[in-house]
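User: I'm writing a tutorial on reading structure tokens. Could you give me a worked example: one chain, its sequence, then its tokens, then a sentence or two explaining what the tokens reveal?
Assistant: Sure. Here is the example chain.
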Amino acid sequence: MRRLPLVALIAALTTLGPLGAVQATDTFTAPDYANPACRITAGSSILGVTPDMVAGVVGLPIALPASPAAQTLVVTELGQSVDQTGVRDFLATCGLDSATWTDVLWAGDSVPPYGGEATLDLTVVAGILPANTTLKTATVDDGDFLNALVNAAHACGLDGNDPALWNRSQLDTPVGGCIVSMSFAVFEASIGTYALNVLGLTDPADRVAWFNDVNIALAGMASSGVITVVSSGDEGSGGCEPDTRGVQDFMAGQWPSTSADVVSVGGTMWGDASSTGGAMTVNDSYSPGSTLKPVTWRTWDLGSDCYWAYPTTIWPAVGTTGGVSMYIALPPYQSAVATSLGVTSGRLSPDLSALAGWPMWFIPTFNAPATPTLEMGTSAAAPLVAVGLAHVNAALTSRGLTPLDNSGGALDVHDVIYNPEFASVFNDVTDGNNNIWSSDLWTGPNAVTTVGALQVFGFLDGSGVPFANSSSTITGYSAGVGYDLATGLGVPNFARLATLLIAAQQPAPNGPPPVLQQLPAPDTGSCDLIVTTYDWGGASTGGWSRSWAQWVNDGRGGPVCTRTLVYSNALRHWIVQR
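And here are its predicted structure tokens:
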């Protein structure tokens, strides 16, 4: 998350140079404001957009024919909390019916102070939550990813601190499932230093154990069906200080967005129809009704966590992070896209992308909610994807269909989004890059600053090269047709995804006939069963209902649990017909 106060934004209109841009495949019409009160202007410029405007561009909300199954969405917060009244009042001002949420605090922790990150996360999701969805925050008062994720698992309903004992039946909403959003990550090259300096783990063995335990927790959540969504990071191609943000002259992805058990979300911005590539600045005015398209997020602004020399000198560029993991093996669901990139090992991130900025997100200021501010970052993109997936699952369960989950079955979220049958879901981002050190920022017709200006501030040497990084090591990643390490598969349209998944869960026209499965009802009489031996052909667990059959009790009849499997050509799996 990157916050730029309104005063600084207004000043930026006169201090920053012209903007460049990039190009994508599909275009859309820039949405208008539902309420003019939620529009910030500076002179003749309009700045920022509200959550409902962004939601409309990605196909939200999705119409529901009936009430969906109950589900849970959990927003994970580290070291921050949020003023719920302030966020809800702000959203009401913008004409949005805001959800309430429950705060789940890690046992023994104190409630941390209000923060901009938490405020951004909750503003993104609270005003566009689907029906019958319980919203929670899972909060810890420090930077411990392990406690934060285990706390999120608890908020979903999973019991205890041992991920090996977690299963879907424990979820508070086992039918609809649980989705977790987390907007915190650390460069892989800096994980050990982070564990030392932030968590105080002085023993190298303890640091390795902590890293492994976080991955085990994520795997336990996934095996229970929980979809965990993590932002890919805001430090572009790397090379930043402090060590929590990167290492100079080194490119790397950010973990745990590089975990194979999460959905990694990168960032985009909205360029105009003639954009050809380059960074954007905060001095461009948003114009409702104009023709726009998603482009790789790379912004030159006045606020950043990316330092040229920590803690004194901020490098004034940010952008979406991506890369090939040094620690997490290439998962099977990425084998095809890895081959197309020539990658043979290492998990690729991100999986997909959503709006980070420009335009920036219009939200309340965390410590003065009556005063609006503007934010940007993959910290907004991740919760947007999480709430988008919640809408997709609501659309499915409202029709009695199986929702997406993360457990490796037919409706596994990764297998679905990487399935070529669902390629039309994504607005492919084909231009731009995430190299925030590139000379195109200060040379050429679309430069956002000048060589001289950066030399005065001590960023560039006499040859115009950043002192911090060499062009040979920090090259960034470029967007292109299909999957890329800047924007992943592109920007999803959630309504289109729901439509395809609804169609995919119908019996194949020329496929094998449906299969009826039955087993005697247990002594409890409940058919809420976890019986994996019946989950053949990729079918998921559950979906049993109580019925009566003559074959039980030596032909005298009795209660049974029954379900029907149908074969889906699109998913290439047997699925439970619900």
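What the tokens reveal: The domain at 2-435+467-503 is CATH 3.40.50.200 (Rossmann fold). The chain has twelve helices and 29 strands.
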